[in-house]
Amino acid sequence: MTPVSAAAAAKTGRGPFAGLPREAAILSAVSFTVALGYGIVAPGIPAFARQFGVGVATAASVISAFALMRVAFALPAGRLADRFGSRRVMAIGIAVVATSSILAGFAQSFDQLLVLRGVGGLGSAMFSVSAQALLLASVPGGQRGRASGLYTGGFLLGGITGPALGGVVAAWSLRAPFFLYGALLAVPAVIATVALGPVARPAAPRAAAGPRESLTVLAGALRSRAYQAVAAVNLADGFAVLGIRGAIIPLFVRDSLHHSATWTGIGFLVFAALNAAALLPAGRVADTLGRRPVMVAGCAISAVGLLLLAVLPGLWAYLGALAVAGAGSGLLDVAPSAMLGDLLSAQARQGGILVAFYQMAGDAGTVAGPVVAGLLVDSASYPAAFALAGGVLAAAGLFALITPEPHSNRGTSP
Q1: Which of 65, 85, 111, 263 could form a disulfide with 118 if both were Cys (CB 3.0 to 4.6 A apart)?
Q2: Domain-by-domain residue ranges, the chain?
Q3: Is the predicted pLDDT of residue 247 greater than 80, yes or no?
Q4: Cβ atoms 135, 338 nearer than 8 A
Q5: Is residue 131 within 8 Å of residue 337, measured between CB atoms?
Q6: Which pLDDT belongs to residue 411?
Q7: What percent of the chain has pLDDT over 70?
Q8: Fold of 208-406
Q9: Are 358 and 231 in contact (CB under 8 A)?
Q10: Nearest to 63 by CA among 362, 326, 370, 275
Q11: How do residues 303-328 score in pLDDT, each as one tens digit?
Q12: CATH of the domain spanning 9-200
């Protein structure tokens, strides 16, 4: 893992980024732009796929193809970041997503669309792994919580803004969002190539590592209780919060609460608002009191929110439960990645492969969550699915509770 260099320690001067290395502001801007573009294109993908005469389930597989390729290519993306540098791999990954998106807008068959979105998932894995590895390598331990919160906030803000703009564009043309997405990604690609250039060079030449060495490093990390904990918490967050919220809540609002999709959107907005409100406070607490207390609290609060969905009836209980779950999710967006950065500080090489597995755990949870919860809804009930999600989070929280806090340089300045 590239250490924080003197150049990388150059700080920004104002606002929420005051005192942080400038990479934190640059990468947060990149994350916002990428999430904005994805939010623009995502809502119209199933409808665009249906134009090729396929059913609903087949159309939805286009979204699954993107997610599955992210999971499948995460470890190779980590190796690429370790070998060629995070900045270069991030720029290439963004370019792959942009090119595949524009070509998807020209797709003349469902098979073409499916393949191109799968290629986009490959590029997304390259971007997300290398960007997080670069962020964690650039920010000192005493600032990683705050930097992680701001970086996640960029994704969150872009993810909220994108669908609204995407709906307007898709009403004009279902192909147009793909072109707009590709054009928007030119901005972060240029940032990754140019703006980060002077501050993102490795301090020493990077030795090429083979697959065996990468797997050896990963196997060693998996023997660490702290690394197991951050991966488990990320998987639980992906499974319970991201996966179930996105796939099951809309059906729950329709089938159990008997309200329109408008209330699904309102619930998601409440969740996002509390999530965003928790990010910076959680980052500061993680930087001062430690990562583990924030991880445990995040799992517990998120689990309570989902259990409230399971046991309390009515629309207002639904909104209150999502508010609680959103606040807990904000804590989980910060503390695990900060602890991961602490672990990577002791890993002078092959940090990308460890970030890759961490992200792969979260993506695997996001993919598995809707499937498992959907089966449970069909065989039992919505409350059973929400209770399972709460249980998964509670188990991850207990695991974090018994995990020693790794050594870090919290409280130090660069």
Answers
A1: 65
A2: 9-200, 208-406
A3: no
A4: no
A5: no
A6: 43
A7: 87
A8: Growth Hormone; Chain: A; (1.20.1250)
A9: yes
A10: 370
A11: 999 999 999 989 999 999 999 999 99
A12: 1.20.1250.20
